[in-house]
Amino acid sequence: MKKASVILDKDYVIGQVDPRLYGSFIEHLGRAVYGGIYEPDHPAADEEGFRQDVTELVRKLQVPVVRYPGGNFVSGFNWEDSIGPKEKRPHRLDLAWFTTETNEVGLHEFCHWAKKANTDVMYAVNLGTRGVDAARNVVEYANHPSGSYWSDLRIANGEKDPLNIKLWCLGNEMDGPWQIAHKTAYEYGRIANESAKAMKWVDPSIEVVASGSSSHTMPTFGTWEYEMLRECYENVDYVSLHRYYGNPTNDTPGFLARSMDLDSFIHDVLSVCDAVGGIKHSFKKINLSFDEWNVWYHSHEQDNEVWKQGKWKSALPLLEDVYNFEDALLVGSMLITFLHHADRVKIACLAQLVNVIAPIMTKNGGSAWAQTIYYPLMHASQYGRGISIQPIVSSPYYDCQDFEKVPVIDAAAVRCDDGSVSVFAVNRDMSDNVALSLDLRAFTGFSKMEHTVFHHDDVKAANTEADPLQVVPNAPVTVPLNDTQTEIILPALSWNVIRLIPS
Ligand code: AHR
After folding, report:
1. CA 71–ligand 1 middle distance (angstroms)
2. pLDDT (mean) for 185-210
3. pLDDT tens digits for 198-243?
């Protein structure tokens, strides 16, 4: 059996984990809203039409924030279409996804759903076809108490208290030519700056996220961040990053190593942020919002077929990736990478939440179930709140096509708010279990240790409507704890949660 070790020490502090690291995303796209969170004719629908079976699955994830309403969708969206009496709301062509948006679910309804799901809203403004005026107006509508045109309209629309949205995205993927009203870095930096200024004049308590690169591989990556931040550094709080990975060549070891790209993407963006801070002689630090991340590739061909059958319909089954077990392992490693950067990555949104590249799937009129990728997010969200500490990992390595020296064991640790310690670890080895020796150093006083293993013999196994529990984690088992040194077996290809519970 291969061997690895992890040293944990209280003093190896990376930073406080912002709970918003476990956020998610719902876009008006495919069946995320219509047929996902909302299906008024479904037997599980509540009085507002929200599916309670779906809300319950979201609540279990303890998602602290959900980005909304897009995504690419937002760059052609008029927020005013989504308020007021439903029967008067316009149906509009959505040029991002070639569908028709009915606006049946709008700003008020989504905020109601968020309350039910026990989450906060992160709202994206349209900096594609719209601009500063629409951005400041929606902040006034949502957050100003009363006595102005937009706040009084909110009250007239049935919401006496402000919606109190604290986190705002300044557009979406404005570096991408596919974006409606795509901009150069300079053009975007200017409009982001002016929008952020006006939005914060309306409500100084909000935080705003500037759109960074849509991927590490964009030709403008780096210069985009540099040029746009030079225009808006003083008025923005975070820069966004987006990243999706796929395994189209069926190279599992290479796929599981993709979190190394994620790590260098984060390093690179931070370097540019800090370089702009440097040239501005600023003491302010810009932190990161990884507001779209996931595995995404399974559904590409199916989407082309769906569009071939006709554009401009509503709630088409788009981006419905069926996730397998290896996808869950990479999602686990991506979460581990965010924990390694907990000092600077403050927000991360698994894209998306329901049906569209999502941990939760539904059948219209039928059941709702958790995909494989649901479980690592649930574990990290439940047990990864506190202070991220740097585990010192000694592990065997492997080489693959794009990366050398990929550690077989990928691990992160959190000293949790309740006094427990969690270690999250992926064993990337294709065939060997690894005996992991845990050296707890100054951590003492634990009464027990629990180990949860998530493993499946078939990396391509998935949960489906017919078999929703095919790939699920084992129940936690108690492992003997020998003073401060102990050994645990991490099965080949597994996600593991090790919990040290205080006496
Ligand atoms: O999450 C799906 C899409 O991916 C989003 O709309 C867009 O921002 C990204 O390209």
Report:
1. 5
2. 98
3. 999 999 999 999 999 999 999 999 999 999 999 999 999 999 999 9
Tell me how far the alpha carbon of residue 246 lies from the centroid of ligand 1, in angstroms. 15
All CATH 2.60.40.1180 domain ranges in the chain, comma separated? 2-9+389-502
3-state secondary structure 57-112: HHHHHCCCEEEECCCHHHHHCCHHHHCCCHHHCCCEEECCCCEEECCCCCHHHHHH
Kindly report the CATH number that applies to the domain delimited by 2-9+389-502. Answer: 2.60.40.1180
pLDDT of residue 484: 66
Residues known to be catalytic: 173, 292
The per-residue pLDDT of the chain, averaged, comes to 96
* Tens of pLDDT, residues 438-492: 998 878 888 889 999 999 999 999 999 999 999 999 999 998 887 667 889 999 9
Q: Report the run of H or E that residue 207 belongs to, with start and end.
A: strand 207-210
Query: Three-state DSSP class for 259?
Result: helix
What pTM was computed for the model? Answer: 0.97
CATH 3.20.20.80 maps onto the chain at 18-383
The residue whose C-alpha atom lies closest to atom 5 belonging to ligand 1 is 71
% residues pLDDT > 70 (the chain): 99
Q: How many other C-beta atoms lie within 10 A of the C-beta of residue 70?
A: 26
Is residue 224 within 8 A of residue 185, CB to CB? The reply is yes
CATH code that applies to domain 18-383:
3.20.20.80
pLDDT of amino acid 480: 82
Q: State the Cα–Cα distance between residues 214 and 192, nearest whole angstrom.
A: 16
Does position 359 have pLDDT exceeding 80, yes or no? Answer: yes
Residues 135 and 125: beta-carbon distance below 8 Å: yes
Residues near ligand 1 with C-beta < 6 Å?
A: 27, 70-72, 172-173, 214, 292, 351-352
- Report the pLDDT value the prediction gives residue 483, as an integer from 0 to 100: 67
Biggest alpha carbon distance in the chain?
70
Q: Which residue minimizes the CA distance to atom 6 of ligand 1?
A: 71
Backbone angles phi, psi at 286, to 5 degrees: -95, 125
Measured in Å, residue 356 CA sits from the centre of ligand 1 at 10
Closest ligand 1 atom, CA of 294?
1
